[in-house]
Write a structure and sequence with these properties.
alpha+beta, 3 domains, 3-stranded mixed β-sheet, two-stranded antiparallel sheet, 13 strands
């Protein structure tokens, strides 16, 4: 990935010999060696994830791919927020091609896509996808960046939700304004 040796050595030494224990409802487990990854809550975790995610997307060739949604003269085929990635395409074939490129590049760096967390949303009919023996679920809607995205593109429910949230805030502020 082009990360200098002295930085990978630094990270390796930082975590060498690290141990952890897990607290459960029945007490704590025995101490065990950490063999992979970084400690839960470590500030390095999101930084390393972002490095890997960017590496995967670039090597998958998504920037140069013709697949995607055309918007204002630009080709959009992925949206990323934190550890969520949304792939977009005009056709099922294009979407599957994008997905397989990302999957292959992920595997090259030792990451495996979680098919259980992978969903498909389509504005038209779509065939069932099976990846590595697992069926990818097709959904009518999903939440991205806190907003509900629907297959038909209807956003009236989101407008109503935001109006209700605004009304609730104003009701709570009403007592402050009256004092």
């Amino acid at each position: 990935m082009g990360i200098p040796d002295h930085l990978t050595c630094l990270l390796t030494n930082l975590y060498a010999g690290q141990e952890a224990t897990v607290r459960t409802g029945h007490g704590t487990t025995d101490w065990f060696q950490i063999g992979k990854g970084v400690c839960q809550g470590c500030i390095l975790s999101p930084c390393l994830f972002n490095l890997y995610a960017e590496h995967i997307m670039r090597n998958a060739g998504l920037e140069d791919a013709q697949a995607g949604i055309k918007n204002a003269g630009r080709n959009l085929n992925n949206l990323r927020y934190a550890d969520d990635t949304t792939l977009m395409a005009e056709s099922e074939e294009e979407l599957k091609s994008l997905f397989m490129k990302v999957k292959e590049e992920s595997e090259k760096v030792g990451l495996k896509l979680n098919i259980q967390k992978t969903k498909i949303i389509a504005s038209g009919p779509i065939t069932s996808w099976e990846i590595d023996g697992e069926t990818v679920e097709t959904v009518a809607d999903f939440i991205f960046g806190g907003s509900k995205i629907t297959a038909d593109g209807d956003c009236s429910h989101e407008i109503k939700r935001h109006l209700l949230l605004g009304r609730k805030v104003m009701t709570n502020l009403d007592s402050i304004f009256k004092t």
